[in-house]
Amino acid sequence: MNIGIVGAGKIVKEALPVMEQISEFTFQSIVSSGRNPENVKNLQKQFNIKTIYDDYEQFIQDEMIDTIYLAVPNHLHYAYARKAIQQGKHVICEKPFTLTKAELIELRDLAQAHDIIIIEAITNLYLSNFEVLKQSMNELGNCKIAQFNYSQYSSRYDKFKEGIVAPAFDPSKGGGALMDINVYNIHLAVGLFGKPEGVAYFANIQKGIDTSGILQLDYNDVKVVCIGAKDSNSDNQSYIQGDNASINIKGPTNELKYNQGGTQSYQVNPHNHRMYEEFVKIAQIIKQKNNDLAAQKLEHSIQVIEVLEQALDSANIKVGPSQK
Q1: pTM above 0.85, yes or no
Q2: Cis peptide before 96 (omega within 30 of 0)
Q3: DSSP string covering 209-231, please?
Q4: Which label site among 120, 135, 161, 239 has the fewest CB atoms less than 10 Å from its CB?
């Protein structure tokens, strides 16, 4: 498939070397804001991208593109994806797909009308380890508690404290710890337990945005805590606890520990880069036009967006272009 790349930031620079290893992808073109043309030219040269655009409207009309990879600030996802769908392009969109459930449902309906596949790029759910993790849940007995932690001191946080606000910390651009980093934990929780019965978010708020926070998800008999921070660091370990056993998720390795003794450790991811399986499997879904699987993935994304909305509401945090 001929890929059009939207954006030239940090995530694009990480993704392109991975996508380059996947035979289904051919880099057709790239479009960015034009603020750093040398950056885009370097990417073009490094990855043999055929065409550079500085205007999204022209880019999206390129008939050689059949799929776009959307990696721009969160608040642009909806509008950019909508225009791509209307031009008959499949869409691979970085997380979170949109800022609201209503936006994503609209994109879903539009994609169905145009017979287009749209899919969220979310790393952890495509890993082979995740499939084994779901099987290991049967060993826990009655699951009681889960705690997921993804905390990473942001390279942009020091400037944020000085008053220089990057999109990742900008409320008007859908930034914040919940949307940018805790969303991984939410995807994991929804992937394992489904849609929660209750949602409450307790956030550290600076300049109108959450720089870190604790999200509580209530599944009646199971209580889940999701910790996400951009203002502090932690060893990113997660635990799932049952009355027969527990699971420790530490980096790429999962450890199943039985209460009565005995431990099993596994790491079955076939590639050392976390994004590889994600792009391989997404490429297969689009190439095979697997609409049923794409619909399942999108329904999962809709449930995640619903949790995000409920969490923001509970903490009285407003994000999106209407914010000043």
Answers
A1: yes
A2: yes
A3: EEEEEEEEEEETTEEEEEEEESS
A4: 135
